[in-house]
Amino acid sequence: MQFQNTLTFAQQLDAEDILRKYRKEFYFPQIEGRQVIYFTGNSLGLQPKLAQSYVDEIMGDWRMLGVEGHFHADKPWWDYHERLAGPLAKIVGAEREEVSVMNTLSVNLHLLMVSFYNPTKTRFKILCEEKAFPSDQYLLNSQVRCHGLDPEETIVEVKKREGEHFWRTEDVRAKIEELGDELALVLIGGVNYYNGQVFDMEGITKAGKAVGARVGWDLAHAAGNITLKLHDWDVDFAAWCSYKYMNSGPGNASGVFIHKNHLGNTDIQRFEGWWGTKKETRFLMKPVFEPMETADAWQISNPPVLALAPYLASLQLFEEVGMDALIAKRKRIVAYLEFILNEIAQAVEGSFEIITPKDRGCQLSVLLHGQGRPLFDYLMKHGVIADWREPNVIRLAPAPFYCSYEDMYRFGQILKDGILTQND
Ligand SMILES: *Cc1c(COP(=O)(O)O)cnc(C)c1O
User: Fold this and answer.
1) Pocket test for ligand 1, best of 135, 221, 240, 363 (most atoms within 8 A of CB)
2) Is 48 annotated as a binding residue?
3) 220 within ligand 1 shell (Cβ under 6 A)
4) What is the DSSP letter of 243?
5) Which of 151, 259, 263, 279 is 20 to 30 Å from 188 at the Cα level?
6) Do 284 and 343 share a domain, yes or no?
7) Together in a domain, 142 and 268
8) Is 189 helix (H, G, I), strand (E, B) or coil?
9) 413 lies in which domain range?
């Protein structure tokens, strides 16, 4: 389709958008009385209007039932988390028993590393991407130190090539092959938080496993954004937070994936707690841990039901819409945003470039040339909520659930005015 950078054209795309009614299902912040153009669904998704009633339900059950809510609420609390596994399994391409919800993302990656990073004298290295999300760097470093190893010798980073803004799959593969028998674990962000790149998860998983390593993915920017087939790709483990594209609310619970091959394995190293032991016998309070035969074996505590409630509400919307429809709109709206950005980049030559490669999801990262921060402040002042990353990058993620094509057009107008004002 030939795009046009006009209001009429954007409105026509909105009229054809089968997801357009979902825009009204979310609360938008306002700046100076006007609904914002929201580009930070990759950081904190907007609140679904449905969320409140799900939270109210728990508050009501607690008020009316007290402890009895664990078993006698309409949605009993003791296995509330199980309600999330089915919808999530569809989103990440897993079987239901391979998915659980617990804790938060960095915590879960630590717990999963206990199970899947078991260094030996000869096989101990970890492969990750350079400049991974800071929490991932800290967790890899501290895990390695816990094993008495030196992070410098243990953690190997795949670098971008000089002058390039993205990682090349062939470079990741080459490193995996070079490390070979020494490689214990590959752990990479499936969608990079900075440049928005989608890694070839299937190919990299295959390559890692071919040399005998375990392969895990941090899916913080991938879950609810791109097509995932964790089971079929034979990924060992993965985890994601739910507050980015999954719209579950600030700091909310994380989902985990553990491949079926590892379920029911009583030899696996794992930090255990009472919620991971068999449901049938859990309350007999026996001294022996009998793991659930699902990813729930990794559950340690009884779940924070008040937090899971808005997550479940959000998943209800994902169930209704389905990832295929979301991804179809995401591709189109990102392409439209790219078209508008390119028009402006041509009109005001040398002002910025898009550094996100073609393998991408919802996010376009724009590297500004010249004075970036004042332009970013200008955008915020004019009702655009975007995200600033040092030294000079603005991240734009038009989440398909609630962003409109008209938003993209209006943003383009504001951006152009902003650049021209800065240049004056
Ligand atoms: C957002 C994000 C996190 C956040 O971790 P929390 O434990 O939820 O605070 C971790 N890793 C990546 C790659 C992220 O993008």
Assistant:
1) 135
2) no
3) yes
4) S
5) 263
6) no
7) yes
8) strand
9) 7-35+322-423
How many beta carbons lie within 10 A of that of residue 299, not counting itself? 23
Q: How many CB atoms lie within 10 A of CB 73?
A: 19
Task: Tell me, in angstroms, the distance from the centre of ligand 1 to residue 79's CA.
Answer: 26
pTM: 0.97
Which token pair is 216? 């895990």
pLDDT of residue 349: 81
Our answer on whether the CB atom of 117 is closer than 6 Å to any ligand 1 atom is no
Q: Is residue 21 part of a domain?
A: yes
Q: Which of these, 221, 136, 148, 222, lies nearest to 186 by C-alpha position?
A: 136
106 is in an annotated binding site: yes
Number of independent structural domains in the chain: 2
Predicted confidence (pLDDT) per residue in 8-65, tens digit: 999 999 999 999 999 999 999 999 899 999 999 999 999 999 999 999 999 999 999 9
Among protein residues, the one with the nearest Cα to ligand 1's atom 14 is 220
CA dihedral sign, ordered 245, 251, 253, 255: positive
Query: Which CATH number goes with the domain that contains 110?
Result: 3.40.640.10
Measured from the Cα of 105, ligand 1's closest atom is 7
